[in-house]
Each structure stands twice: as structure tokens, then as C-alpha cells.
Amino acid sequence: MTDILPAPDIARTALAPLVAHALNDELALHVFATAAWSHLAEPGDGVAGRIVGALGPATALHEVVTGGRDGAARNAAELTAQQWKDAVARWRPRWNQRAVLDNLDVARIARIRLLTPEDDRWPAALADLGVHAPLCLWVRGDPGALSLPSPRAAIVGARAATAYGEHVAAELAGELVARGVIVVSGAAYGIDGVAHRVALAAGGVTAALLAGGVERPYPTGHADLIGRIAATGAVASEVPPGSAPTRWRFLQRNRLIAALSEATVVVEAGWRSGSLNTAGHAAALGRPIGAVPGPVTSAASAGCHRLLREFDARCITSADDVLELLGVPTGSTSWLPQTLFDMPDSTGRTDDSTRISDAMSVQSWRRTEDIARRAGMSADDTSAILGLLEIEGVVHRGEAGWRRAPAPRRP
Amino acid sequence: MTDILPAPDIARTALAPLVAHALNDELALHVFATAAWSHLAEPGDGVAGRIVGALGPATALHEVVTGGRDGAARNAAELTAQQWKDAVARWRPRWNQRAVLDNLDVARIARIRLLTPEDDRWPAALADLGVHAPLCLWVRGDPGALSLPSPRAAIVGARAATAYGEHVAAELAGELVARGVIVVSGAAYGIDGVAHRVALAAGGVTAALLAGGVERPYPTGHADLIGRIAATGAVASEVPPGSAPTRWRFLQRNRLIAALSEATVVVEAGWRSGSLNTAGHAAALGRPIGAVPGPVTSAASAGCHRLLREFDARCITSADDVLELLGVPTGSTSWLPQTLFDMPDSTGRTDDSTRISDAMSVQSWRRTEDIARRAGMSADDTSAILGLLEIEGVVHRGEAGWRRAPAPRRP
User: What residues does the Smf/DprA SLOG domain cover (chains A, B) (predicted)?
Assistant: First the structure.
């Protein structure tokens, strides 16, 4: 509906006294108030989500700043008096109009866009978070990269990844972007970094969700990578520029990665890795989760095995498995046997023909009756099956009976 | 009910003309007829299972040898005329009283016992195979090892195992026998061999099921190992001495491994490994199956990942996981968090206390109001949580406010 306003306009308009409701440019007020809410409320604050949802950001902000003592606001948002009192007590100390305006200035200079839920490019998938959905996203790069029609897969994992994990992350990311999938991750060291890097190298679109402000890349060692992600994709955060990446925000950032992606795949994760938190968010949202297995002797795979064992994650061994999670047709026709019961025979034959074949020799000719007795089958059945096997070319008929053709060596 | 008769008695008695029904020793006849059936019918022959179940082995054998043209036998076993005709056609050519007696002699000399379903030591678990249950078992070693009250776990896997797979098989087998579990396997090279060998080395009981006659160890390279299994446990087969291990018999042998065990664990398996057939039998019997994950880059783990993905196998990373499959209490109280949502904080604290902790500094003292604003929480809540954290010793109170205690470094 609305487009993102250029930062200077917002700043100019918002300088008008907010509490007076005297702004002419309602749109700018809306954007300013949204930005203000990202200062007041920590990520995932459901009370903030409820009141902003009920009243809109501007009116909700007005209520907070003026104290909202008449109860109309909290009634509209179906909040108890206590919930409202507690919420105002945590929001009010953070109210600082100047800081909001300064941040909008910082954003303008750093070419950071404020993406609001009314924007056409707002990712609809975030609505599944309900009252815990982000109130806005601060975006470096192309906000549209977050809502392209392509499927999005989160590829996440341990910072302390092994060479094995990085190899698998690279394989997955490379093949997924080749199939048009957008790779979503958290820009951390280890698995996240490899996923982004390979997605970029393969010419794909990738999106990074950060726990702190997008203008201060974290980890700093990934400043260059994060810049490259922004150059062709998007780097986003729900906290305003200048915000530190706290542990709380990492946990909440994980819910964004999960909510933004149709499926979440954990490539490597220690027993208590933060990646499991991302997978947990995905599971809570009803999104499929996948885990790449590894050696049980590797601590870096313990979290993945936990996901397989306790959380019914799908065992991921290839990009095709991820495409399946995403509901994307893999295109390959299945050549696989549909049951475990007819497999060990490399020729594909089982049951009676296996028994006949077992009863035959490559070296010596045997009579039908002899083969039947050895196979424990009737002479009639044996004769019929020998006929079929002859057509397949796996047995030969001769004067002295039957002989098995030499089998091709198994790989 | 009956005990196994020593072979010489059987042989002597059975020399009386069977078809005349003139035997005095009905018990010996019963055992002789059971042995004869293991010559006539290939493993898993459901028609044989049905007629022997309905008439008993001796009468059923009489019917086959005499032709059973009056239909009484097949009626009793609820077989169609065609089923009966086909079955007799495949059994009759194998009828050779002399061969049965010779085999009972071979068995006596080689100290092989014939275990029949009436024996107290017959493993009750085999009854789940229904009409496909074995008609008898030829056993080297102690037949009682197959029906001890201890839980039995099948540890099976690829012949072409990797060092990783052999390491894991050894760990599992060693810990399982230490917990009193009987390790069941197939005596093949690779995983099977390691499982047996480690079980023996750890002083445990292990049982091997063979596809051929128990007097001709297969593979021959495991003759010594198979002898050692028999010395303290049991080596069993449903086919009589002298029988070759055919592919059909390997597939049917796998059903015995699965049926004898409360759970089947595949340690390593190629994409089409015979171990998957064993797991398939276990699944068909409603027995839990487990698979050990490995690197997705290892072909030797591809079958295990298939079991995890397509057949809902349990992901096995330790002996405790196998004990859980067996329904054996592992004894360790779970210290693990019950949800994925409260994990990444190494101190175990989350939510509000995480936010308070995030808002504090180790270096500088901060006032409660300052901490509240940084955490996005009310001063009252902040004050209350700071009090709790002070009791935990993770924050310190001073003249100038609060300070966070230095955290122990994460591993």
C-alpha cells in the first residue's frame, strides 16, 4: 500500500509535535511511529504487537507517550490494566524522539530502508508470528529480496563448524540457488557464512537476518560478506541502527529466520546450539525442519541428531531433500525400489527367480528337475521361470539342461 | 515341553519305516519329521508352516510322502487344492529319508542341536512370524542363549564397513552387553563381525543367525569367530547341515535376526544393503528400528539415512538410544532442557533474566533505571530480577548500582 518514504521527509514531518496530533502528513507520521516502536519495544514483545495491531503505530505511540490513562487504548487491544501498566513502564523510559529522528538520519545516510508491514514488499510469511511479528524491518540492500516469489530455505548451523559441515553447507547452498531457492541465514561464522558465501558465488539471492542494527555488521569479521549480501540481496533486522546484538535479540532474530523461510535446515549444531532454537521456532510455526546427519562421534553434529531423534526433523542428505521439504518438485523420476523387501539382489529379481538363480551354476549345466529340487520349487514352476529368465538373457538353455549367465560384477 | 533328543536315539528310531506309522517312539518321530521338514521346505514357506502347524510335522510329512490325495490334510490346513498340489510338487523331489538321517548323524558328531518349537528354549519371539516362522533351528552352542530373559538387540550393517562404522558398532556392542543385552547379528564381515567380536570380548552373550548350515561357517574367514560365538552363545540356522547359503536364504535369515530381536539397529549400510532388508523385516513385525547416522558424503551411511528419512527409523547415537528402543531404562536422569526455546544461554537463564543480563556490564556499574531502559523492561521488574540474580551470584550490587559477574568461559 505505502511505499517507503525517503528519510529526510520523515524527519521533517515528524519534528512537528507528535502529541498534538497536528501532523498533516499522516503517512510520514505512520512511518515515524513505526520506527519509534522499534526503539520502544524489544523484539517479540507481544503486547506491543497487540496494541500496534489494534490502534496502528501512531495512535498506539500517542497513548504510550501521553500515558493512556482512560483505558480506551488497552481495551481496544484487549489488554488487562496490569499488562498495560507493565508495558508502559518498560516502554516509556525508552521514549526519545530525538533518538528516533537521529536514527532515521543515520538510516538515510547509510541507505538503510525502513520496511513496514503495509509495504507491498513486506514478507507475508511473517504474519504467521501473530502478535510476535516484527513491527518493522530495517533493511540494507533490496527489501524486495525478502518477498520474491521464489522459495526460501534457511540454512543455519554452528559457528564452530567442521570442514565436513562447511562442505555440506556449501553443496546445499550451491545447488539450492541453482534451483532458484533464496538462501536465508544469520551471517554468523561457520555454517551461516558458508551458506551466504556460496549462494553469492553461485549468483543466487541470499538474505541475512541480524540480531543488532544492520549498520554495524556482526560479527565484524563478516563486514565485507554482509556488504556483499546487501549488494544483491537483503540484510535485515527489526532493531534500529545502533542497537547491540544481545543474546535476547539473537534468540528473537532466530524466529525471523524461521518465519521467513518455508523450511529450516540445520547443517551442524552442537548439543545446545542456537541453531536448534531456530529449528524450534520453525517447528512451532509448523514449518518443516531438516537436519543434516554427521558422524555420531562429532560433537558438531550432536544437535542435528537431537533434531532427528526428538523433533522429527527430516534427514537431509542432498539439496533434493531440501527441495522436497520446500514442496518444490525435484524433477528426478524415482528409480528407487518402493520397499525394503526386494532390494539386496543387484539384478532386481527376487523371490522365485532368485531361488531358481541360486539353484543354478555358471559352470555346469543342470536339468530342470535338479534345479527345481535345489530351489525347493516344483518342476512346473521352475520350468516357467527358467523360460522367463531365458528371455531376460540371464540363463542359457543347452543340450544338458540350463546354465546361469555370468553376472556383471557388483560395484 | 519336550527336550532335544540326542541324535543317535532319533536316528535309531527313525530307521523304522516312517510311512507305516509303526513307530513306538512318537517323540523321536516328531523330531525326525521336524528335521525332515527343514530339508523339504525352503525357509519362510508359509504353506509348510500352515500344514505343519495344523497336523504336526510327522502327520504332515506322512501326507506329503503318501501324496495325501483324500484332501483331509489340506482341508485341515485350509489350503486350496492348487496350493497343496504346488507344494507337494516342490517338496516331494526333496524327500530323502537317508539324507535326513545322515544329517542327524552329522549333527550328533558336530554337537549341533535340533531345537524344535515345542522346546522350552524355543524363542517365543519367533511366533510373531506366523506361518512363516521357522519349523526348527539347528544350533551350535547353547540353544538356551536364544531365549534368555535378557533383551536382545540386532546390530547389523554393511560388509564394506568403514573405520567409522566399525568404531560405532564396537561402542554400541560393548556398552549393550555391559548392560546385559544380547547382541544378535549375522556373522558377516564388517559391522556384524565387529558386533559379535566386541560382545565376546566384553564377556557378553551373542547369537549369530546363518543363512547356510551351521556346520559350514560362512564366511569361511569367520570360522574361528563363529566357533567362539558358539562356545558361549549360540549359532543357529533353520536350514540343515550341508545347506549352502543362497541369496534367498540370506533374505530369509534376515527375518530371523529381526524376529529374534526386540529392536534392530543398522550401523552402516549402502543404499541397497541387505541390512535394510533386515530392518524392513523388523518394521513389518512392528519392532522398532534404529539407524546410526554418518557423514552424508559416505556411501556406507546412505542406507542408514534412507531408513531415517523414509522408514521412520530412530536416530541412534549411543547405546542409551538402543536401550530406549528396547524399552530398557537407561538409568540416567535427563538433565536436558525439554524445549528448544530456552537453550542457547549457557547459564540456563532465559527470557527476562537474559535481557537484564544483556543490559548489564562486567566493567561498569549501572543504575536499575538504566538497566531497565536498556533491557526494555519496567524498573520494578528489573529490580525484582536483579534481586534474584544477586542470590544466584551472577550480578553484584554496589554503591553505584549493579554490575554483572564475569561469566565462566564457554567450552
Answer: 114-326
